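FYI - complex with phosphoric acid mono(formamide)ester, inputs then prediction.
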Amino acid sequence: MEFPGSHILSVTQFNREDVEKVFSVADSMRPYAKRERLTKVLDGAILGNMFFEPSTRTRVSFGCAFNLLGGHVRETTDVKTSSITKGESLYDTARVISGYSDVIVMRHPQAGSVEEFARASRVPVINGGDGPNEHPSQALLDLYTIKKELAGQERGIEGMKIAMVGDLKHGRTVHSLSQLLLQYDNVELTLISPQELRMPAEIVTTLAERGHRVVETEDMESGLAGNDIVYLTRIQEERFTNRMEADIYRGRFRLNQAVYTRYCQPKTVIMHPLPRDSRAEANELDNDLNQNPGLAIFRQTDNGVLIRMALFALILDVVHTIDHTSSDVGWYTDRRFKFV
Ligand code: CP
């Protein structure tokens, strides 16, 4: 893939080499994310952070990533405050915002909307989640996290066993992560969901054709056994016609410390794209796992900044101009409060 100037719309754009390139650049971003080094490589550049659907992590971490590279962020956080509510088309919005920005991140509730927006944009567009379809930067940060977690166990992605649990029909993060795994060999996937919320058949077929072993089940206990990674997802209430319909499935699959101890391996890594639904009736990932060393959910969110910095550096073609030898951390780093 030719990164400079490219839109990032789907994980299907990436081959194995591209994924490893993103991971390698993400590694080099760590000192900047930790404020051990400063860079102003994107000074003067503007990110249009256009979110037409709720978000905490994706919106804020893309913004932080751009700021950490020295750029500025302008954002829409709510469709109600956007002129889309006055009937403005995605085409017009894209023409306007791409005149104000050097790169755009967009989230929108409709599958395919970000691609439509990108066709009208004059600058690169990154898909921050288009309905139930895809969330490519989340998949990259998830796979990067998996790589790091398994490396800590002297293991690699190839040969790993992963269980994906929950609403696999509507969960864009599992759609993107599964398809990114097509770049690797010999992965075993156990897909645990209610019958009605199964992973789209075309993704399951593609995984099997690629030679991965895929098992679909509704039985969480047997499905959890033997996995290196357990990746939980929320019931995507916003994709159902009403809350009552989502309630049918809420709370069906819960992971807590007792279930983990009984059914998972001692070193099983627990992941979730977040937000987790912590309401009593859902509680898919219990707070009693918060001290479990295998809980990687906040390592995922930290890694999100590195991956998003890497994507900006690659598509805005500044990756080779960042001075990785500089130790000039500036006045701010010296004066930061140190929290424990
Ligand atoms: N993982 C994720 O997309 O989180 P947000 O919805 O908070 O951005």
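The first strand starts at residue 46 and ends at 51. The chain is about 35% helix and 15% strand.
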